[in-house]
Specification:
Strand content: 25-35%
Distance between the termini: 38 Å
Order of helices and strands: EHHEEEHEHEE
GO molecular function: acyltransferase activity, transferring groups other than amino-acyl groups
Mean pLDDT: 90
Domain N-acetyltransferase: 7-146
CATH superfamily: Gcn5-related N-acetyltransferase (GNAT)
Largest sheet: 7 strands, mixed
CATH topology: Aminopeptidase
Protein name: Ribosomal protein S18 acetylase RimI-like enzyme
InterPro entries: Acyl_CoA_acyltransferase, Bact_Acetyltransf, GNAT_dom
Keywords: Acyltransferase, Ribonucleoprotein, Ribosomal protein, Transferase
Number of helices: 4
Length: 157
């Protein structure tokens, strides 16, 4: 008998793409309202997850029972995405996913975060990430000021 309340982290596969797309879209809408309404359809985001995310990144999903609660995608040493269902935030699931990424990144992990995303910035700072650069946003698609954060195993000590 399995414990359906236990959360497991596993590598994502193509069958997870539609759920990853749902999480991506709902999380961005809930946590980053300053981005404005999503211009892509669920089908387009699912196709991106299948054709780009799952092929270019090592992607993990956090699962309780059969429900995917969140995902993290790592490309090289860059954490490209870490998103959760809005209803499961602040329950340790992001920490589980981030720990998996860190475990597979012995030389460290970098990420970009919008300066406005204070919740995400606080989350990463609690997990040992430090700011290594800030920009005015001219280099990102959204044209919003952002920051590059970095974690190394020595910064966690």
């Amino acid at each position: 008998m399995t414990d359906d309340s236990k959360i497991n982290v596993r590598l994502a596969d193509a069958a997870d793409a539609a759920e990853i797309a749902t999480i991506h879209m709902t999380s961005r809408a809930a946590t980053m309202p300053y981005l404005g309404p999503q211009k892509r359809t669920h089908e387009q985001v699912t196709r991106w997850a299948e054709e780009v995310l799952l092929k270019e990144c090592r992607t993990w999903v956090a699962v309780r029972g059969t429900e995917i609660l969140g995902y993290a995608a790592l490309e090289g040493d860059m954490l490209e995405h870490l998103y959760l269902r809005p209803t499961v935030r602040r329950q340790g699931i992001g920490t589980l996913l981030l720990s998996e990424v860190q475990r597979h990144s012995p030389d460290g992990v970098s990420l970009h975060v919008f300066q406005q995303n204070t919740d995400a910035r606080a989350f990463y700072e609690r997990h040992g990430f430090t700011v290594i650069a800030t920009t005015d946003g001219s280099g990102n698609m959204e044209k919003l000021p952002d920051m590059t954060l970095r974690w190394t195993s020595t910064s966690a000590s």
